[in-house]
Amino acid sequence: MSLKDTLITRITASGPLSLATYMAEALLHPAHGYYTTRDPLGAQGDFITAPEISQMFGELLGLSLAQSWLDQGAPAPFALAELGPGRGTLMADILRATRSVPGFHASAQITLVEASPTLRAAQIATLDGHNITHVDSTAQLPDAPLWLVANEFFDALPVRQFVRAGDAWRERCVGVQGDALTFGLGPEGPQPDLTHRLDDTKDNDLIEVSSAAQNAVREVGGRIAVYGGSALIIDYGDWRSLGDTLQAVRQHAKTDPLESPGNADLTTHVDFEALAGAAAPAAHSRLTPQGVFLERLGITKRAQVLAQGLTGDALETHIAAHRRLTHPDEMGNLFKVLGLFPTTASPPPGLSE
Ligand code: SAH
Fold first, then answer.
1. Quick check: CB of 53 below 6 Å from ligand 1?
2. 346: helix, strand or coil
3. Of residues 340, 332, 270, the one with CA closest to residue 296
4. Cα(185)–Cα(162) distance, rounded to whole angstroms?
C-alpha cells in the first residue's frame, strides 16, 4: 500500500492529522518516507543545496568554525557536529579546509545527526578515512564543547500551522475528501504558547510553529552555553514567520504537498526568532544574509584563487556557483545565517552581535 493510501485509511478511521504529523510521516516514514528511502540531492535528484553547488561554501564555514574554536582557547576534546548532513559534502569540505589548523582534527569528535539510513551510508562513504559517529537526535550530542553546522536542516522539520480566529486559533489539518488528501481547519481553541503572536497578527493570518526545531536547537544552545562552542545555522526563512510557507518540490519543480506523500520534499521557511529563543541561554548573532556572510569570510578572494586553475566549462560553472551562493537575486538574500555562541564569547567570524 502507498503511503498516501495508508494515511487515508488512518485519517478515515481516527480523524485528521496535524500538518506536523503529516510532514513527519511523509519525510521520515521508515518504509516510504522521502528522506528514508532516497538521496534527493543534486542535479539528478529533487533539489540542490549550497555545499553541492560549490566547495567554497564548506571551506569558508569550516574556517569560521575553526577560528571560533581557536578564539575560545581550542578546548580538547570537542564535538564537531552537523545536523542533517545530506551526502556528507559539507563536512568533507569543512575537514579539508581545516586540515592545517593545529590540533583541530586531533581534538574533534565528528558527530552527525541523521535520520535517514540511505543518507547515513552516503555520509560514511564521503567521509571515508575519518572517524565519525551517527546519532538520531541533538539530545544524543556529546556533553562537550560543541562546534556545529546545520545547512537546510531546520526547513525539513515538521511544523504545525495555526489560523487566527479572534483571540483563539484554528489548526490547519490534513483530512480526506473522496480519495484525496485535503487541507481543513480544526475547531477554535486557545493556544497559550501563541499569546505573543496576538500582537502582530490579525484575523485569518496563518503562522507556523515547529516544536521539533525548537527542541533540537534547545539541546544545541544548552551545550554551547555550558561547555562552550558555536553553531552556524543556515536556512531560508526570516526572523519571524507569517503566512503559509509549506512547499513541495519534486525533480526541481514545485508540486502539491498533499499529492504524493513520500515522493516530494516538504519544507517550510525557518522562523529564526523561535530558534534564537530556544537556544537561550546561549547568545545569538544578528540574522545575516548568506551572501553578506560569505563575502565577509572572503568568498570572492577564494573564488579568484580557484578560478586560476580552471578553463572553459569548468570556469563558467565556477563563476555561476559563486554568483548563485552570494547574489541577492539568487541564494544570497533568501538564505540567512544565525550564529549561536556563549554569552562570554564573540560570534563566529562572518557574524556580528
Ligand atoms: N545539509 C545537507 C542536506 C540537507 S537535506 C546539504 O546542505 O546538502 C536535509 C537533511 O536533514 C537530510 O540529510 C535529511 O535526511 C536530514 N533530516 C531531515 N529530517 C531529519 C530529522 N528529523 N532528524 C535527523 N535528520 C533529518
1. no
2. coil
3. 332
4. 9
Distance from Cα 85 to the centre of ligand 1, integer Å: 6
Atom of ligand 1 nearest to the CA of 265: 5
119: CA distance to ligand 1 center in Å? 8
Each residue's pLDDT, cut to its tens digit, for the chain (353 residues) gives 899 999 999 999 999 999 999 999 999 999 999 999 888 887 788 889 999 999 999 999 999 999 999 999 999 999 999 999 999 999 999 999 999 999 999 999 999 999 999 999 999 999 999 999 999 999 999 999 999 999 999 999 999 999 999 999 999 999 999 999 999 999 999 898 899 899 999 999 999 999 999 999 999 999 999 999 999 999 999 999 899 999 999 988 999 999 999 999 999 999 999 999 999 999 999 999 999 999 999 999 999 999 999 999 999 999 999 999 999 999 999 999 999 999 999 999 999 99
3-state secondary structure 326-342: HCCCCHHHHEEEEEEEC
Threshold 0.85, pTM exceeds: yes
List the beta bridge partners of residue 111.
Answer: 81, 133
Ligand 1 center–CA 190 separation, angstroms: 33
Backbone torsions φ then ψ of 134, nearest 5 degrees: -95, 140
Pocket of ligand 1, candidates 114, 118, 155, 270: which has the most ligand atoms within 8 Å of its Cβ, to mutate?
Answer: 114
Grid coordinates given for 183:
487541507
Q: Is 236 in the pocket of ligand 1 (CB under 6 A)?
A: no
C-beta 79 within 6 A of ligand 1: no
Nearest to 112, CA basis, from 96, 125, 99, 101: 125
CB of 93 sitting under 6 A from ligand 1: no
Give Cβ neighbours of residue 192 (< 8 Å, ≥ 6 apart). Answer: none
The phi and psi torsions of 164 (rounded to 5 degrees) equal -70, 135
CA 285 centroid distance within chain: 17
Cell (9 digits) for 57: 561554501
Q: Which atom of ligand 1 is nearest to the CA of 35?
A: 15
Neighbours of 185 (CB within 10 A): 16
Whether 282 and 222 have beta carbons less than 8 Å apart is answered as yes
